[in-house]
Design a protein that fits this description.
The chain is an alpha/beta fold and about 260 residues long. The chain contains 10 helices and 8 strands.
């Protein structure tokens, strides 16, 4: 209940639909779409678990794919439905990523888990959500799971915004390793790549890519939002050149783990 209440308070006061609209937000969106489209083939069936207001679901439905969406928050589902066009072959239902009881196993070629791991605070819930995502995916299907990066939060929230000075969050910070913990009150669960690796040890998958979907974009957000389309296209070209480089992925705000179900 604590998680539901915290998420309700957050998503009812934040414009989630606009988050990926400006150039700065589009970097994450365009990068994720770029990698999804590497594996999409005609007539593939997509599920998006934790679809939010449906930016990804609507994009692929409008490009001719069958999309089923699951979303926890009613306020997001309302916007999702408002944004649905008559031509879209799309459904949306309310549900929690940790238990997709109404969805049969091995139904989908592509599974998008682009939001739920942000808001799961226990190992039990994280494994449950990952297990459910894999369960509904066909053998040989591809799963895209997104995470928030621990160490960009250290830079941005801990140092730039002064969280390390105020003492309020000291119980959630290991000042030896700078690993951060979260509760529903902090909204976002944080990960390092090694955390993702440990989580995936229990599942039979083949990793295809590990991607930084926005890299240093948010450090120069105003500059990126001010770019004309030609310069923004050049920025995206550069970004896609570096977003899988192991020496640079640690600079991203959001990480995307892409793997095949074996």
């Amino acid at each position: 209940m604590e998680r539901m209440e915290a998420l309700k308070n957050y998503y009812e006061t934040h414009d989630e639909d606009a988050r990926l609209s400006l150039h700065c937000g589009k970097v994450e969106f365009l990068t994720t779409v770029h990698y999804i489209e590497k594996y999409l083939k005609p007539d593939m069936k997509i599920i998006e678990i934790g679809a939010g207001t449906g930016r990804y679901s609507h994009y692929f439905a409008r490009n001719g794919y069958r999309v089923d969406a699951v979303e926890l928050m009613e306020c997001n589902i309302e916007v999702f439905k408002q944004n649905t066009e008559p031509s879209e072959n799309i459904t949306v239902m309310q549900g929690d990523a940790v238990l997709l009881a109404d969805i049969d196993s091995e139904q989908y070629d592509i599974t998008l888990l682009l939001g739920p791991m942000y808001h799961l605070y226990t190992e039990e819930d994280r494994k449950a959500a990952m297990g459910e995502a894999l369960r509904v995916t066909k053998k040989g299907g591809v799963v895209f799971a997104a995470y928030c990066n621990n160490d960009m939060t250290v830079y941005q929230f801990g140092f730039r915004r002064g969280a390390f000075r105020c003492g309020v969050y000291d119980e959630l910070i290991d000042f030896e390793t700078f690993k951060l913990s979260s509760t529903p009150k902090e909204i976002f669960a944080l990960y390092r790549k090694e955390d993702v690796d440990v989580l995936m040890e229990d599942f039979h998958t083949e990793r295809l890519h590990y991607v930084g979907t926005d890299m240093l974009t948010h450090f120069i957000g105003s500059e990126i939002d001010g770019m004309d389309e030609k310069m923004f296209d050049m920025y995206m070209k550069y970004h896609l050149c570096i977003c899988e480089r192991p020496d640079m992925i640690g600079t991203t705000n959001h990480m995307l783990d892409i793997f095949r179900k074996e």
